């Protein structure tokens, strides 16, 4: 589905004015904040604390993916370029190196590992390549250009905390980010729809998205977790030409974030 520039401006306007009907479905969710939207018209079909500022953890990586795809399109980055992995300060964070013990990767593999297995070092390496220490500011500038509110703040390419600061956003803003990513770079769904990937070096990386193949038409999008953010997930699915995006922030467990998503998808379709 393509969203042209004028339609995108209208979508932002509709979202800013949108609110759910008082008769919205009665849905019990574990998540502290959640929404489901129709992409065609930006209508919010269900909301729970949609404007509440929440930590978003690895959902951050969707902005990094957007900027990578923009750089590739603008010939500022090549999929075949080889990069050495950035070393993470947190040894417990999910990393490509911890699984493979391989230090040098192509941009394509780093991009895929970032989205599929949520590799933090892959995301940080891509961010470092694009704008070094200034990459978080590049992310925030892009957010403003997309029409996201000033409630959204990025602090790192991966979503990991930096000096005690966390990436934060709202479900409304995350819908704008997700729909912009999908509408301008629909090829991202070819990666996020995979339950696993095989890198160019032959390493198999499993997806963190347990709903692939479990929900009709679901082809993305991104999980997230930190102790502060809880279990987060942005899901998207398309059926009969209709696409919806669901957002779950701060669910109690990984299983509950996916259960919440299943409920939201039923509302959406």
UniProtKB/TrEMBL annotation:
Listed InterPro entries: Beta-lactam/transpept-like (IPR012338), Peptidase_S11 (IPR018044), Peptidase_S11_N (IPR001967)
Q: Which GO terms describe its biological process?
A: cell wall organization; peptidoglycan biosynthetic process; proteolysis; regulation of cell shape
Pfam families hit by this protein: Peptidase_S11 (PF00768)
Occurrences of domain Peptidase S11 D-alanyl-D-alanine carboxypeptidase A N-terminal (ranges): 23-253
Assigned keywords, A-Z: Carboxypeptidase, Cell shape, Cell wall biogenesis/degradation, Hydrolase, Peptidoglycan synthesis, Protease, Signal
Molecular-function annotations in GO: serine-type D-Ala-D-Ala carboxypeptidase activity
Q: Which residues form the signal peptide?
A: 1-24
**Active site (UniProt):** 58 (acyl-ester intermediate), 61 (proton acceptor), 118
Binding of substrate occurs at: 222
Per the record, the similarity remark reads: Belongs to the peptidase S11 family.
Per its record, how is this protein called by name?
D-alanyl-D-alanine carboxypeptidase
Organism of origin is: Listeria cossartiae subsp. cayugensis
């Amino acid at each position: 589905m393509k969203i042209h520039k004028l339609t995108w401006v209208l979508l932002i306007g509709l979202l800013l004015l949108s609110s759910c009907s008082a008769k919205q479905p009665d849905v019990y969710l574990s998540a502290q904040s959640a929404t489901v939207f129709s992409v065609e018209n930006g209508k919010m079909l269900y909301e729970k604390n949609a404007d509440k500022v929440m930590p978003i953890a690895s959902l951050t990586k969707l902005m990094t993916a957007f900027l990578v795809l923009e750089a590739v399109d603008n010939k500022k980055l090549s999929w075949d370029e080889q990069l050495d992995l950035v070393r993470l300060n947190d040894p417990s964070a999910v990393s490509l190196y911890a699984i493979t013990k391989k230090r040098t990767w192509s941009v394509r593999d780093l991009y895929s590992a970032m989205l599929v297995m949520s590799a933090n070092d892959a995301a940080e390496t891509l961010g470092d390549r694009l704008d070094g220490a200034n990459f978080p500011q590049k992310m925030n500038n892009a957010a403003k250009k997309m029409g996201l509110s000033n409630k959204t703040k990025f602090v790192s390419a991966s979503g990991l905390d930096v000096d005690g600061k966390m990436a934060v956003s709202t479900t409304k803003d995350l819908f704008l980010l997700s729909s912009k990513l999908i509408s301008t770079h629909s090829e991202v769904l070819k990666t996020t729809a995979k339950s696993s990937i095989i890198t160019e070096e032959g390493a198999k990386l499993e997806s963190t998205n347990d709903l692939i193949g479990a929900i009709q038409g679901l082809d993305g999008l991104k999980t997230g977790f930190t102790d502060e953010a809880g279990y987060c997930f942005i899901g998207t699915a398309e059926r009969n030409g209709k696409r919806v995006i669901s957002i779950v922030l701060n669910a109690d467990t990984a299983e509950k974030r996916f259960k919440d998503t299943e409920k939201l998808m039923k509302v959406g379709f």
